[in-house]
Structure formats: C-alpha cells, structure tokens
Amino acid sequence: MIRRQRLAAGVGALLAALTAGLACPAGAVADETEQAAPKVELVLDVSGSMRARDIDGGTRMAAAKQAFNEVLDATPEEVQLGIRTLGANYRGNDRKEGCKDTELLYPVGPLNRTDAKTAVATLAPTGWTPIGPALLKAADDLDGGSGTRRIVLISDGEDTCQPLDPCEVAREIAAKGIGLTIDTLGLVPDAKTRDQLSCIADATGGTYTDVRHKDELSDRVGQLVERAADPVVTPVATEGADRCEKAPALTSGLYTDRVEFGQQRWYKVDVKPGQELRASVSVADDRAVNPNYGVLLRAVTVHGREIVRGEAAGTGRTDVISTGLRYPKRDSDDDEAPAETVCLQVTSSFSAAAGVKTTPGLPLELTVDVVDGPSGHHDVAAFGLGRGWWLLGLLVLIGFLAGLLWGWLSRWRVAVWRTN
Amino acid sequence: MRITRALGAALLALGLAAGPAAADSSPSPGASADGDAPTQAGTSFRTATEIEQGQRATASGSTGDYLYWSFPADTGQRPTVKATVKLPATHGAETWQLDVYDGLRRRQACQYGAQTRTAAQGAASVELACVMRTVRGWSEPWADDPLPGTYYVRLTVVDLGAADLGQPVRAEVRVDAKDIGGAEAVDGSLGKPLVPGIAAKSARDEDGSKDAVLSSFGQDDGWSSGWWSDRWVWTGIGGVLAALAGIGGYALTRGSGRPSRVPPNV
Q1: What are the Low complexity biased-composition ranges (chain B) (predicted)?
Q2: Binary contact (B64, A207; C-beta < 8 A)
Q3: Residues A224 and A241 placed together within one structural domain of the fold
C-alpha cells in the first residue's frame, strides 16, 4: 500500500516536473514568435477617383472592399495585419490639408476579423491621394519586431502631393535596412500611375500588379499576405569600409549594406586552415539604371594579393546582379596555425540613369559561409580504381595470361617432379 | 574446381547486378511525388521557393515579377530546367528569360535550350528551357563549374512594352535531371555541398532551435559523399572477370581430363 502511494506520488511529481518543463519553453517560444511575427499593412487609396465604375461593372471601392473581406477571411493566423487609408476623410480643396489625410484604420496586431471588416465597410471614396506620406506613416506602423514586413499599396491614381516623390520615399524606407517590402497594385491605372507604382515596388524589391477584375484583386492581395507569412532569414545590417584595415569582421551569416555608385565596399572574414570560405554578393538596382552593369567580388589577402574573384556582368532588365566565390584554405600540419584574415572587396558597375538620385546607395546583400573543407582526400582514383571497357579488357587479358602461366608452370613442375 | 567456377559465376552475377543498381542509386536528393508541388514562387534569392527534382511547381504572378525557385542537384546529374509561362489574352511582344544560378549565386551557363524567347503579340504562352552542364564533384575555386548544392531558377520578362507591366501570368517550372554518371566524373569532392547558409544551419542544428534558413537542402539529405563513384563497380567487375579469365586460362593448360603422359595410379 505504502509502495503504491509512493509510486503514485512519484508519478505525480514526474508529471508536474514534465508540465513545468513543457510550460516554460512553450512560453518562451510564444514570446519569440510574437517578436518574429510577420507584419503586413494594407494601404488603401480612398480618393474620389475610387468612385469610378469600371471594375466588372462595380465601383473600384466596391471591388476593394470585397477583396479586403476575402483577404481578411484568409489571412493566416500568425500574420499581424493593419489597414491604413489615404484620402478617406478630407473633402476640401486645400492641397496642404488633403496631403495630410492618412489614417490608421485598423492597427497592426493580431487580427480581429469582425472589427477589421466593420472598419472597412465604413469607407467611402473622398479626397486626395497622398501616397508618400501614407507610406512613411505605414513604415512607422510596422516598426519593431524582427519578422518580415510588407506594405501592400492599392491605388488607382498617381500621387497628388508632389514634390514628395513616393518613389523616393519608398527608397528611403528601404534604405533604413528594416527589410520592408512594398507591393503595389494599380486599379485600372493609366500610364503615369503604372510608372509610379512600379517604381515604388522596384525601389523595395516588391512587385507591381495591374488590376482590372475583382477576383484578380482579391487573389493577388491574398497571395501577398500569405507570402509575408513565409519565414525568411532576416539579414543583419552592416557597413563595409572603404579599405580592408577598417572593414567590419564578419562571420557566417547574411548581411545587407548599401553601396553607392562607383563606391567599393570592404569586409573581412577569418578563415582557419582546413576551412573553406564561401561568399556571394548581390547588388540590386532599386531605381532606373543604365542597361549595362556588372559586379565584382574579390577575395584579397591583407597584403593585397588577390586570391580568387567572382565576377558577373549583364545587360537589360534585372532585379539584381550577383556573383560569388569559394576559397578553400589548405589544411595545416600545425594545429596552432592562426586563422587567415581574408578581405572581401565588392564593387559594382551600375550607373544611374540620367536624372536619377544616387543616394542612398544600392542595396547589397552578402552571404558568408565558413565551412569545413574536405577532410583528407576523397580522390577515388587514388585508391587505384579505374573505369571503362579498356580497363575491363586489360584485366581480363592479364587474368587470362596469369592463369595460363600458372597452369603451364604447375604442369612443368609436375613433370620435373615426375622425372626426378 | 567446380566450386571455384560456381563461385566465380556467382560473383560475376552479383557484380553485374549490384553494379548498375549501385550506380543508379547514387543518391539524388530529388525525385518526389507531384502531389504537394509548390503553387507560388519567391521574389528574390532569399525567398526562393524550394522545389524538388521531378516536381511541377506552379505560380501566379504579374508580368515584370522576378520569380525565383531553388532546387538541389547532386554530383553526376545534368539538370534540365523547363518553364512555361501562360500569358494574358492581349499583350504586345515580350521577351522572357530563364536564368540558373548556383548556390554561390553565380550565373550558370546553359548548354542548350531556349533560355530567352520572345513571345509574339497575343501569343498564349512561351516555353523556355535550360540544359545545364553536368554537376561535378569538385572543381578549382577559380572555375565556375556546377557543383553539388542548391541551384536557383529565375524567371522573368526582360523586355516588354510599358502597357504590359503588371498583367497576370501563370508560370510553371519543372526540373529533371539526367544521370550522366562516371562518363563526366571528376575526382575530389567538396567538404559541404554549395548550400547557402549551411554554416549557420549546422550551428543552429546543434542548439536544436528551428528557424528560417536560406536553403533547407541539408548536408545529410542524401548528398553523395564523395568516396562513391562508379569506378568501384568497373574495377570490381574487372577483378571478377580477370579471376574468371585466370581460371579459364589455367583450365586451358590442363586440357580435359588427365594428361596422357601421366601414368595411371599416381
């Protein structure tokens, strides 16, 4: 009886310990996911032009509302969604006032579908199209956390609040290095709107879509929200120097930087004997550039000798130009052999098209992997192995001759032994 | 004598049976069912959608998007990437291009296949293909030969009229590989396959946490280890055949039955 009680107590204690053990890490994990939750903000143009009835017979606003309802239903659980409007409130003609008209309709956070839908239902097409200010505010809304950040901008007209060019705004936002992507959708756009929206998308590595039908709109917005939910490695911002001595020391990982036109960037990596350095770099063109370009990545010793280089050149429309290199450092007999500092130099030959601002620099992405090199030699031929029909023939011939010889020898020996 | 002959025949049979089987089973990290093929594509190297060889991945996007997929390829394989783009009903002439990059984001050459193709005005679809070079086990660091690891596929329109930007398109991509085997084999191997972020990944595996990775094709997911090559089969069969030939040669010198000169009762 006592034994049984003890057993029960033991089991109880064990269970308690297990639950405690399970509960603690679970809490920690939940906290972590909160930090890394993907954030999406839908920015909707509610300017007067949204009244136009040209999307499948309905108004643009009706199409947007329907799309929002569908997207809100399909939003993955982990995505924190916010909605911002532009031009929803101010009816007047004062440009200055109209260009301030942007409102956070539904704050970024865990999604309450009913609340969000109610908020969307109240919208009525009203005012101006302050895209630039709305983007700036939206970027602030998404601040904090380490997850992916996405702005989905839905608009039917170009920005009416110059001189603040929304394209420049987008580039400035991207240059903050917070890994924010802006995807744009144009509702029945004219050429100017299309240019502006695709420029905004290009500036941040986003996509531009032209929408003429209701289902296209909801499909695309849904797809973009879902895309935000995919876990992606967040790069670490770094700043390369103009020469090796001052360069930041990097370890294995993914880094971003900005490189200005005609500028070189230096980084350094420590490679121990027997290790292999792998580095790849891509430079994105986030603005209009001339159609011929290239990138060069060099691995250089601290004394300036080039070890190996990767180079790439291209022409025509592109999002990035990339190259990479590999440097296996020979294994050393001396266990105490020091690590070698390898300098990485990045230069790109992008040139800005006429009339395009050159600051901030182009986004640069650098991956560094320091892995173990091959241990020993895996050279299968070094085992004395061969291949091919000639090898088979030769082996058969040698085998046959050996057998023949052995046979004759043994016969001869038997004969000699017989005669003696 | 009979025993050795039987043994020899058995060995040969074993060698012949094991040879091609072993050569074929050179692990390919691909080859899976079509059922759960990805239905979207990434938009950068970092977000590329991972597909397996033999899978037909689809994606919907807009003209002007850069669509990225990634797939694993192992030593001795010659991957062929095929892409079909279904274009919108009305459009002007536009040029589509398929680019393949290796794990170091170096552009890989296509041996043949229409890598760039211009769809005429109003064409319903455009088909692109790229037959890569055979993936080698090892190459000099100064060469850009294809090495085992991750490969990226980028599909995009490179030339289009301004009015065609942002139109809905559907893309379909499929990667198949032909096993070239020893015919193009080189000796040597890499310490780790060219999978981006593999150094960070192995560090992370140790502390057990799970996180986003640049490329999830791991180092233990059946990459050929480098010591295997079909030379083992060739040399093994050669050895067996040599032994059999030896037995044959020996048997020839003995003739059939007892030599006539040897007197009986010995």
Answers
A1: 22-38
A2: yes
A3: no
